[in-house]
Amino acid sequence: MSRRRHLRPAAVASAAAVVLALGLTGTAHAAAPATTPGSAARADDPDQPENPLYDAPEGFRVDSGREAVALSWSTLSAATAYEVHRAEAEGTGPDEVGPFELLATVPTGSYADDSADPDVAYAYKVRALDGAGHVSPYTESLRGTRDTVAPFAPRDLTRARQDERGVTLTWRTGDSDSVKYMLYRAESPSAPRVKVGSTTSLTFRDTKGEPGLTYSYEVRGVDAVGNESEASNSVTGTRTVTAATAPKAPSVGSARLVGKRLTLSWSQSPYVPVSSYTVYRSKTSPVDTSDPANRLATTAGKEYTATVGEDGRDYSYAVVATSQHSVRSPASASVRPTYTEPRPPGATYVHDVAPGAGSVRLGWSAVPYGSDESRVTGYRVYRSTSPHLTKENTQFTEVTSGTEYVDRGLTGGTKYYYAVAALNEDGLESALSPEVSATPTS
């Protein structure tokens, strides 16, 4: 900032008197300054030598915006505040503006005019103030608008190419003031649109779409202040599946450990055919699926169950899909199963008792088990010749995997009492079924 000082006429006269005195006598004598009407310093006159604000703020900038017009400038060391003045711009010329009015007084080098009427052009200028009431000259006036008008929608969106590398789209500007374009896609014409990228050109290649999935695309223009246009026409495009295409990573939806029983299930995108899934596990997460030592099993389905050891709760698991052309997918997210203490199975009830010659045939209902319960593996039949049978006073037991049992070698005419309990793979046993009785014949 240059420090200009303007000499007043009285000061010029004083200097001339000094020169004249030197020329005549060789000794300088200061002559009394001449006084003229209005020669006293005025605090609001930036040309006064005692005014420290002799320059306007530099770097004045006006940026149009959607919510406000943003003003900024460089601060002056002598200034304590700044006046922002605004006028309606009546034409395109620098002087075609209405009368300026004080809009705000602020302490810093910026101001956001959010009171501007939408889509009306304004002219702005700023000057500095100090604590003594001095003012600087005004900055030059600059124009700005709170722009809320969206650009016209792009036209003629076209799918130019689709191959294994992606889908290439082109379009026309629509004669708008767009400075960039936003690309959107959806998995069907009625599905929600997702923003996939932006560009300042009239072409875009979507390389991130899932191979084999047909997307619906549209493009919208965005102007310099962020207003976004309506959508263009929509087109569809599909990234091509080839023999080299990798499947999408499986998504593990359930990982449970009930006692020692592990159950994993996952979903898989259908667009790249999968021939098998490999389950990996390790005691560190994420699971390193490149290490053969972490490989647990391979299955054709989307579920894996197994009985694991006592340390089963210490492992994390991940799944990798392999395509029909032996191309591996990325690994799924590594998951640690939710552990549940094993519970005894539910009780059954005997619905069929048929005595025979030296025998009794029993039939009972199978016990169901949920996804968070251990699998029922069999049933134990209890027998006694006394009523009120318990597991402790029983005289005979037999384990079977089915829901029917024939008790042979019995004494005819003797009444026998029976109850049945279910067994699960954790070795736990249910309560006894209600007691039944039968008397075989001789």
TrEMBL record:
The keyword Transport is annotated on this UniProt entry: no
Region (Disordered): 30-57
Fibronectin type-III domain: residues covered: 56-151, 153-243, 246-343, 344-442
Signal peptide limits: 1-30
Keyword list, A-Z: Carbohydrate metabolism, Glycosidase, Hydrolase, Polysaccharide degradation, Repeat, Signal
SUPFAM superfamilies: Fibronectin type III
PROSITE patterns (alphabetical): FN3, TAT
Bias kind Low complexity: ranges: 30-41
Protein's name according to its UniProt entry: Fibronectin type-III domain-containing protein
Organism (species): Streptomyces alfalfae
